[in-house]
Amino acid sequence: MRLTFAVIPTHDRPAELRQTIESLALPPERVLVIDNASTPPVADVAAHVVRDEEQPPNISRLWNIGLNWAHEQAAGEKYAVAVLNDDLVLPPGFLAAMVGALDRYGAAIAYPDRSGDNADWHNTEQGPVLKVDRMTGYAFVVDGEANLRADERFRWWYGDDDLEWQAQAAGGTVRVGGVTVEHLYSNVSTYEDPTLVAQTEVDAQSFIAKWGRPSWLFPTTTS
């Protein structure tokens, strides 16, 4: 039996944040909200809240705040950590399905299906995959025993890809078939902020510099 925790960075989405927390169905002491300079500050949520003022944000650093917190809370017990965006609707049984997949495959990270084939996929090899098969950076669950941390050089994008490739060397990742998550505002924060758009390009080049190749591919068609 694992302890299960959740980490949710947030900025100015109070209603969506509460919805995400409610769909988790975890006790408040197992949920950490990292309030990244929200106005007004996050309050009255069923979670522990810490405040972070850095703008523009470093999402990898925010994830690490949460991963380190969960490690301390687990106090040597076996555990898993859900790393979530603040604009999700999670299906019933989400955490149980993700943790079950970690245990079945001995994987380091589990994430929900968006490929449409509803099949589990246990990936243990680093290398580019189709975009639809890449890890869902908005919702994934980390095996605490893998001791993974985000590389804070990836300030906005590609931190999830870097974690995915780290995980593939530590037991693999597993896409859990039949489990989907509703992501309300995909990439809205990025495209509304020119600074973050520019950061994605920097992060893309940093990923190639670190790993020697891009992390994912767009599908191609032939006639």
UniProtKB/TrEMBL annotation:
InterPro entries: Glyco_trans_2-like, Nucleotide-diphossugar_trans. Its EC number is 2.4.-.-. SUPFAM superfamilies: Nucleotide-diphospho-sugar transferases. One of its GO terms (molecular function) is glycosyltransferase activity. Pathway: Cell wall biogenesis; cell wall polysaccharide biosynthesis. Keywords: Glycosyltransferase, Transferase. Pfam families: Glycos_transf_2. Residues 7-127 form the Glycosyltransferase 2-like domain. Belongs to the glycosyltransferase 2 family. This is Glycosyltransferase.
